Structure formats: C-alpha cells, structure tokens
User: Fold this.
Amino acid sequence: VQLVESGGGLVQAGGSLRLSCSASGRTFTINAMGWYRQAPGKDREGVSCLSITENSTYYADSVKGRFTISRGNTKTTVFLQMNDLKPEDTGVYYCKAGPNYWGQGTQVTVSS
Assistant:
C-alpha cells in the first residue's frame, strides 16, 4: 500500500488547512485510516482516525471540535479538515492506513 499526502502549509493562528491522503495498491487490506503528527522534539501522537468497517471516528482531546476527519468518494481517500489552528498544532502530519502503512508526511506550520 502506498500513501500520498497533500495539503500542508503555513497558516496563521485561527486559520484552516485541509489535508488529504490517497492510498493505492493492496487497499483491500485497509480497515482504518488516520492521521498522526510529530512536533519537533516530541513523540509522534495520534490526531484522528476513521474506521472504514465500523464508520466510526476518533479524535485526540486536543483537536476535538476543531478537526474533522472524513472519507472521500472512494474508500481509499481520507481528509482532515483543520480549523481554528493553533501554534501547538505545528508539526509533520502523517497519514496511516491499516496497521502499518505510513505516508511520507506533510508539514503544517501555524504562526502566532
């Protein structure tokens, strides 16, 4: 499975960004997709996840009410709409599919 992410960038605090992740290859093995992020000097943390089989979602407490994860028209595309961004949201955002497929990461920088 290959994952391609896009949509990162530089935005001021309070702004919005939309990340996208498209999977290709053996996508029939994917039952969940999600987003993780890693800030400089910190561990990678889970941000949001979507279960394809159960159609359920998960959000980290720090992003609840501001971020929304959704699927595209195909099972293998997922979006992360990020609103009211804060400087602490800065980091590299990684898409993950299934148990162990990762994207290359996309940089999100929020200036104060």
Observations:
- The chain has a mean pLDDT of 95.
- DSSP finds no helices and eleven strands in the chain.
- Residues 3 and 23 are 5 Å apart (CA to CA).
